[in-house]
Amino acid sequence: MKTGRLILIASCLVAACSSPMPEAPKSKAEARKPPPEEKVQLSTAQSLSSYQRELAQHISQANAGKVYAERPQALLRAVIVLKYLLNADGKLLHTEIVRSNHNKGAETTALSSLNNAAPFVRPPAHLLRNGKLELFETWLFNDDGRFQLRTIALPQQAE
Question: Which backbone phi and psi does 14 adopt, to 5 degrees?
Answer without folding.
Answer: -65, -40
